[in-house]
Structure formats: C-alpha cells, structure tokens
Design a protein that fits this description.
alpha+beta, two-stranded antiparallel ribbon, about 10% strand
Length: about 120
C-alpha cells in the first residue's frame, strides 16, 4: 500500500507534508470521504496508473491530467479543456512549487498537450 506522506525540506525550516488534491481542496471525494454518497469518488483519488507521480497517492498530485475530476461544482473534461482553470488552481501551483521544475510532471504517460483553442 502506497502512503502519500512525502516531505519537502524548505530552506532548513523542517519537513512539510506533501498533500494530495483532496487533502488540499477538502472535497471529501476520496475513498471514505464525507461526500462519496452525494458526489461519488473522484477519478483522481482512484487512478492507480498515476500512483507516485509528483510524490502523490494515485492521481492526487496530477489531478489536472485526469478527465472527469469534479472542480468548481461540476465535472471537468480532459486536460486541454480544463487547462486554464487547472493551471490557476491552488493544487497545481502548490504541487509545481513543491516538486520544482526539474521534478514536476505535467501530464500522464502517453498524454500530449493540445490547446483547446486549436480544435
């Protein structure tokens, strides 16, 4: 079992726990979460193919690359459709900052970025 309790050292200030999206957003859509019955379990919380990416559990630290996540009160599309809102999201910004440019993963294996405006 993978436990997402990765840490980052910030300038000698000790270790800070790296959180998954459901822990940051407090959405309650992770397995066992408070809103499972009402909203269902989020695909980011169950996508095991992404386990470990950006030091997260399942897709908890690459949720922007997962179709069907529930943000802003509605189900979202694929990355190209939601990229603008995701790139301004606190989760995206926090993960990118914690991982650093050299270690940050933007897309799942096999995904390519195509701007939604070119469709």
């Amino acid at each position: 079992m993978f436990i997402a309790k990765s840490y980052v050292n910030r300038g000698g200030c000790g270790k800070v726990e790296k959180k998954n999206c459901w822990e940051i957003k407090k959405c309650g859509r992770e397995p066992g979460g408070t809103k499972n019955k009402e909203l269902g379990i989020c695909p980011a919380a169950t996508d095991t193919e992404c386990n470990g990416i950006n030091n997260g559990k399942n897709a908890g630290r690459i949720c922007w690359a997962i179709a069907g996540t529930f943000c802003g009160g509605k189900v979202q599309g694929d990355f190209a459709q939601k990229s603008v809102s995701c790139m301004s999201c606190e989760v995206f910004r926090q993960v990118k900052s914690e991982e650093g440019i050299a270690n940050f993963t933007l897309l799942k294996a096999g995904q390519t970025y195509r701007s939604a405006s070119r469709r």
